[in-house]
Amino acid sequence: MASNRRITLRAHPSGNPLPSDFSLIEEAVPQPGPGEMRVRNLYFSMEPAIRGWLDGKDNYFQAIPLGGVIRGPSLGIVEVSNLEGFKPGDHVWGLTHWEDYSILSAETILLERLDVSWNVPLSHYVGALGPSGLTAYVGLHDVGRIKAGDTVVISAAAGAVGSVAGQIARLRGCRVVGLAGSAEKAAILTERLGFHAAINYRAVGDLGAAIADACPDGVDVYFDNVGGRTLDALLPRMRDFGRIICCGMISDYNNQASPTPVHNLWQVVAKQLTMRGFLLFSHMDTLPQARHDLHQWAADGKLVALENVTHGIANAPDSFCRLMAGETIGKTVLAVD
User: Which residues form a coiled coil (predicted)?
Assistant: First the structure.
């Protein structure tokens, strides 16, 4: 009889999470009740946002308690369904848990049935054609209001969201500059993804000066995945009426008790900037068009899906820890064995 392997929180991380902060347990395979379905998970999406749920403090989601199963977005296939609109064999996406089998209902956050008929790897629906790509699309269009001719700077540009955001901005006729943490990542941005310029922030003494050199006329849109010192360096380089898209603050996810001060916020007033955060599930009306455009760009060969895939549910903690240590490129995915 199959069992349900689950990854639980063993200890609250201190700084960068470690594999030893997690445990693997086995339980009986759950059975769906009325209005529910059982899904066998195929892929876990490794998300920096998960780090914020591990410290025992609620944010926009409740904290994961010690001994609790790690919450995260997953792609799976329906095995048994008592939920109207879903049948065995359907591929579905939703905010579930790191486990072999999940019970989903109409209340499951981000639940949707996927159209996997496009000729692309299934794992891409976890990244460039899934929440990462959708987040990039929504941020640029609904929040950043990009237009052709804009200069767009993207931090964590070789990551899951940043790598797609840069390509979308280029496809919309923008000049795109990416910030990344190694020469290898910077080369990928310009040589594979079509960024117009890339800055290895670890190799420059003054990030603000490097941004000014790459964007001599200023920055119209900044897609911020990092926060902290990077945001501080961008604020004085923004053009009047520029837009800052606050997608993530990954530089402080491992240090949320004492986040990095931002000293240049006066620039928001002086330059009449718009600075706005967003969460994907607040922009559901945009998602159909976003999905269509992302799939079409991928089918036409205009969108490159960067991903790194780790196999085996027991390796989920290690995969997540490497993501949070900045050791991965593109979308970090766990393929359930």
Answer: none
Distance CA 255, CA 252 (A): 5
Structural domains of the chain, count: 2
User: Are 263 and 311 within one domain?
Assistant: no
pLDDT, residue 213, reads 97
Contacts of 142 (CB under 8 A, 6+ apart): 278, 283, 286
Q: What is the DSSP letter of 82?
A: -
pTM above 0.85, yes or no: yes
Asked if 140 and 275 sit in the same domain, the reply is: yes
- 253 and 160 in a common domain: yes
d(CA 72, CA 170): 30
Q: Which of 316, 253, 305 is nearest to 13 (CA)?
A: 253
Q: Rounded to whole angstroms, how far apart are CA atoms 130 and 85?
A: 21
Is the four-CA dihedral 101, 104, 109, 110 of positive or negative sign? Answer: positive
Closest CA to 187 of 201, 176, 197, 173: 197
Domain that holds residue 317: 3-127+305-335
Judge whether 314 lies within some domain: yes
- Identify whether residues 103 and 135 lie together within a single domain: no
Query: What's the DSSP call for residue 42?
Result: E
Dump pLDDT digits (tens) for 162-202. Answer: 999 999 999 999 999 999 999 999 999 999 999 999 999 99
Helices within 172-308 (DSSP H only): 183-191, 207-214, 228-234, 266-270, 287-299
Examine residue 291 and state whether it is found in any structural domain, yes or no.
Answer: no
Q: Is residue 95 domain-shared with residue 147, that is, in the same domain?
A: no
For residues 34-56, b (16+ Cβ closer than 10 Å) or e, as one string? eebbbbbbbbbbbbbbbbbbbbe
- For 191-239, write each residue's pLDDT tens digit: 999 999 999 999 999 999 999 999 999 999 999 999 999 999 999 999 9
